[in-house]
Amino acid sequence: MSNNLPPYLTISQDISADLAEAISVIQPDKIAILIDENTKKHCLPLIDIRHEEIIEIKSGETEKTLETCNQIWSKLTDGGFTRKSLLVNLGGGVIGDMGGFAAATFKRGMPFINVPTTLLSQVDASIGGKLGVDFNGLKNHIGLFQDPNKVIIHTSFLNTLSERELKSGFAEIIKHSLIKSQEQWNYLLSRSFESIQWDEVIPKSIAIKSTVVDADPREKGLRKILNYGHTIGHALETHYLKSETPLLHGEAVALGMILENEIAERMGMLNNEAKTEIKKYLENIYQFPKMLPGYEELAKHLSQDKKNDQKGLRFSLLEKVGMCTYDVLVDESILKDILR
Q: Which residues are catalytically annotated?
């Protein structure tokens, strides 16, 4: 399966050489690099790239807004960039999502290359062409689908991350295994987090996501299984964003998987044994809040989920490890009960 990588994606042994090659294919008239204070310090020194402009923004999900896009568009405009110019997005999911969105909309679209530097962005945000920003506190509310000209993944960037950041990205690897690969799940179960070999796991995880995206690029059906853990996860992430202890994306998704498995069991889809095995595994890795917000608090975030329709709240839920189903209508009473 790990052969099934997107054609625009390279897993690199030599980041500067692969970047130079990608740039030579595009032949841009100018190059801008989008960074934040973290990638400026830890990642930019690891690559050798000619450029006319460095655009620095603040890090963090709270910066993923149209206001920040205004700053990016202004810099590109003032710098005389054109549709033949190139934006290189060097950073995690926020930089990739927002930088890609800014590039795809600047003068109706300029080329862009994503160089994801976090585990989360390497195994998740880098595949599938989803770009966008948060709006009025709603996650990824404004956006579009557009593949980058190139994605270059270099695992040495992972050495710059804290353990908490690595674990956040790892939640997406767990999710990919649970929705599509019993074999990969067994591999994860047989190892401690510390002994995971990223060079081995990352290509397999990307291949799982890529297979799903290829079958349904615009998320009309099957691709919705990638939202497993995310319906409640996004609501929790949004809720905690303004608190003193915000949850990282992967932490919220891990908790979302546990709670959504409770729903699946309640609805007679997932057996107790699988639910308990997954819960135990996740609780071993992640620190979760002691108290959760109640249903009323999360309902306003849940109601804005993009999978919903006029009939109500739709979830992607596990039937067993390796099999996930989508568009499951969940009764409000079950949600209230589980989020009590």
A: 108, 130, 172, 209, 219, 223, 227, 230, 234, 249
